[in-house]
Amino acid sequence: MKLTRREFVATTVVAPWAAASAAPARGRVRAFDLKQVRLLQSPFREAQERNREFLHSLEADRLLHTFRLNAGLPSSAQPLGGWERPDVELRGHFTGHYLSACALMYAATGDDELRARGNGIVAELATCQKANGGGYLSAFPTEFFGRLKAGQNVWAPWYTIHKILAGLLEMYTLCGNEQALAVLEGMAGWTGNWVAPLSDEQMARVLQVEFGGMNEVLYNLSAATGKAQYAATAHRFDHQRLFDPLAEGRDELTGLHMNTQIPKIVGAARRYELTGEERYRRIAEFFWKQVSGPRAYCTGGGSNHEHWRTAPGKLAGELSAETQECCCTYNMLRLTRHLFGWEPLARYADYSERALFNGILGTMNPKDGMTMYFVPLASGYWKMFSTPRHSFWCCTGTGVESFSKLADSIYFHGDAGLYVNQFIASELEWPEKGLQVRQETRFPEEQGTALRIEAKKPVALELSIRVPWWATRGIALKVNGLPLEGVPAAGSYVKIDRTWKNGDKIEVSMPMSIHSEAMPDDPTLQVFLYGPLVLAGELGAEGLTEAMQYGGADGSNTLKGDPIGAPEFRSSAEDPAAWIRPVAGRELAFRTSGQERDVTLMPLDQLFGQRYGVYWRVKPAG
Predict the structure, then answer these.
(1) Is it true that the peptide bond before 344 is cis, omega within 30 degrees of 0?
(2) Dist CA 183 CA 179 (whole Å)
């Protein structure tokens, strides 16, 4: 049987391919459909709109060019540059990301033109698939897979196929495009035929080359169609060499390429949801605990030169110009969303806030909507962005997806309860309850938020509002102007169980403060935060040109130029507020005092066009 979109997202239907003893893992809560949440005016809405402009600007014929050439069809389009050049082995991956972004943006905004653009690309991909003479669809020849099977060097063909399949699936689930499903099933059938004759030993060698989330997309396809063969193929992509130690609570991630691994774990999470196999839940939860904890920077991001190069908690020597690959943050947010659905704990929503504000929002250039590959966390570097037609990095692809679904984890719900996880100006429609919830806030410039209820009739509902980890001074709530007593401590939820009526208003005050975090292996290397916001120090634009702030015409994604030095600080005060004080007349700006060289600090997500520092050497005064 096919699942409806709501059933597909909820994952409460027994997978027809599961063992007779298996039962689906019914999550305690789930996110709302993206179509039910609309962003209101805020930096998130502004970033969404810049991303939408970029999606509208891209030419379909150029995105299809290499697919047509590979299928033997004519194309007069000008080739794209960067990682989409006709001689780059990863070509075609961004077209898959583009389909996902069009579908997500349609769901998030109702943009019918982007839906139509996606539909048009799907139709042309169907033509290419037919010209290929079967189910195969790609922008590169099947010879790449021959090289992969033979153990010869090739740049991640299954990774690219995953992006294309995921884009087709989201065009089906979010836009209702049945042709996308047909093309997807054709390629899934080809995939099944390719892996079927491989022994487990041969498949293990194949899985040593990055393959994205092939397991996840095929599990999703099986759930969406009710066809067991796609899950059987998905299971061939479950990477047991990675999964086995994680299932036993062992971190053997050191030396691995970070973003190669995270999509596999999202696939493990999806298998758990469809079968209830506890092994896959253990894998996902232990991985998340390690990667969001001792392997994470202050921003919630991870990786140095794309890898975990050290043991957990050994990060003081891992600061460079190539820290925090943006793809990794995108995929960790996706994994976190699954885990929160299983058990709605504040630590998952706290992590999402940290990663969203510090690892996603500030990676888009406010001038033109271009996005980053790395977020440099070594002092003296700067932010560098993609170019409109000559980058198309992996992080360009995840970037257009991230900024198309910024509202996807603000609210969650159970059968009778609503969770408010993020403090972002937005409007929620919940027709099953006859409710509309409007969140009005300027957070974080405003230290709080307000929720307004519009109800067609009174409705009994438990409303859970996150008390964030950083709210150590406590928060205050008012319901219709009356104070609410007994608000729990930071890192939890305040729950209000009552019958809500039209016009009810909840006001939340969340005082923010300056605080510090030290590297786990070096207490003198510290970062300063204001509430959830990582603060970056302004180090000026010495020697920084416009060209240095964009990737090269050859698609290069590394900074060109050297850092400048950053000052050390001296203080014996335990509370950094004793020597880091607000700047009069500037929201969210602070300045050190009493230092040999004082520095102005501002949120990392708001700093552009100059060099900066995040981690600072702080030594005792005297």
Answers:
(1) no
(2) 6
Average pLDDT, 10 consecutive residues per value, the chain (622 residues): 46 46 75 97 98 98 98 98 97 98 98 98 98 96 98 98 98 98 98 98 98 98 97 98 98 98 98 97 98 98 98 98 98 98 97 98 98 98 98 98 98 94 98 97 98 96 98 95 93 97 98 97 98 98 96 89 96 95 97 97 98 97 83
pTM score: 0.96
Q: What is the dihedral of CA 168, 133, 141, 163, to 10 degrees?
A: 10
Q: What is the pLDDT of residue 15?
A: 52
Residue 118 burial (CB count, 10 A):
28
Burial code of 135-164, b = ≥16 C-beta within 10 A, e = fewer?
bbbbbbeeebbeebbeeeebbbbbbbbbbb
- Which residues lie below 8 Å from residue 574, measured CB to CB, with a gap of 6+? none
Tokens 């027709």 — which residue?
431
Backbone angle region of 498, left / alpha / beta, with phi > 0 → left and psi within -120 to 50 → alpha: beta
* Cβ neighbours for 221, distance < 8 A, ≥ 6 positions apart: 165, 169, 184, 185, 188, 227, 230
The beta strands (E) that lie in 514-576 are given as: 514-519, 522-530, 533-538, 569-570
pLDDT at residue 559, rounded to an integer: 95
Tokens encoding 58: 């891209």
User: Could you give the 3-state DSSP secondary structure of residue 255?
Assistant: coil
Looking at the DSSP bridge assignments, the partners of residue 477 are: 508
Signed CA dihedral, 496, 499, 500, 505: sign only: negative
Q: d(Cα 526, Cα 616) in Å, to the nearest integer? A: 5
d(CA 405, CA 52): 11
Angstrom distances, CA of residue 541 to CA of 376, 383, 612: 15, 11, 9
Residues 6+ apart with CB under 8 A from 349: 340, 409, 419, 421, 422, 466
Was domain 413-443+448-509 assigned CATH 2.60.420?
A: yes
| Residue 4, pLDDT score | 45
Residue with tokens 């208003």: 505
Domain boundaries, the chain: 413-443+448-509, 514-619
Q: Are strands 612-613 and 435-440 parallel, antiparallel or unpaired?
A: unpaired
Q: What is the DSSP letter of 35?
A: G
Of 358, 349, 323, residue with least CA distance to 535:
358
